[in-house]
């Protein structure tokens, strides 16, 4: 693993909400810290309502984590394009984030520790 990436199990219960819906709640969230960036919470896929997430063609590459695949969040009132991402085949050393999805927090997506 890159020396500037740290992955730990985040204590407590975490929830992600969008468009008035709870997309997921978990006691198994991972917190990834990379350099000076704010920590990112990764939710296990098994704890997410995947029906709200639609895969997109968008992808990015991180030299430390690998290729990220993106999802749009589909709510009753809107589609939040590329609002979540996942590393389907993460780089060596960050394999813990496989089968997890992270979300961009903002005006329409809330990530909360309960």
UniProtKB/TrEMBL annotation:
DUF427 domain span: 15-105
Record-linked Pfam families: NTP_transf_9
Highest taxon above the source species: Bacteria
InterPro entries: DUF427, DUF427_sf
Name of protein: DUF427 domain-containing protein
Organism: Pseudaestuariivita atlantica
């Amino acid at each position: 693993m890159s020396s500037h990436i740290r992955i730990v199990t985040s204590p407590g219960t975490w929830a992600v909400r969008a468009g008035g819906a709870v997309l997921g709640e978990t006691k198994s969230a991972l917190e990834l810290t990379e350099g000076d960036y704010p920590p990112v919470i990764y939710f296990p896929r098994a704890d997410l309502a995947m029906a709200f997430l639609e895969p997109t063609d968008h992808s990015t590459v991180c030299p430390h984590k690998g290729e990220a695949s993106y999802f749009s969040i589909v709510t009753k009132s809107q589609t939040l394009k590329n609002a979540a991402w996942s590393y389907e085949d993460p780089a060596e050393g960050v394999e813990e984030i496989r089968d997890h999805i992270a979300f961009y927090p903002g005006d329409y997506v809330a990530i909360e520790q309960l």
